Amino acid sequence: MTDALTDVRTPIAVSPNARVELSSDGTLHILVGPVTLHVERLMCEELATTLAVAVVRLHERDEKPEPAELRLVTSSGPSRCS
Fold first, then answer.
1. Which residues, including other chains, have CB under 8 Å from residue 82's CB and lie 6 or more apart?
2. Which residues contact 40 (CB under 8 A, 6 or more apart)?
3. Structurally, how many domains does the chain consist of?
4. Cα separation of 82 and 61, whole Å?
5. Domain range holding 50?
6. Burial letters 14-49, b for 16+ CB under 10 A, else e
7. Is 61 a domain residue?
8. pLDDT tens digit string along 36-82?
9. Reduced to 3 states, what is the DSSP secondary structure of residue 82?
10. CA dihedral in degrees (11, 12, 15, 20; nearest 10)?
11. Quick check: 18 and 31 in contact, CB under 8 A?
């Protein structure tokens, strides 16, 4: 067997649920659960940027302040509004 037929992959980032490997031909292999993406570096950078934007937007969406509790003030004192 020649080296040209051997695909050597080097792990460059690993987490409990995802892994990125660099192939000997420069292809990045992104493994997430049962899915593997084989992409060039520029596509990987675009994917990373897109995912980062999505995470920021989800964070912003989830951090909306709770609405203020409204109270009705009458001559007998404050009471809660439902």
1. none
2. 26, 27, 28
3. 1
4. 25
5. 1-54
6. eeeeebbbbeeeebbbbeeeeeeeeeeeeebeeeee
7. no
8. 999 999 999 999 999 999 999 998 888 777 777 877 777 776 555 55
9. coil
10. -70
11. yes
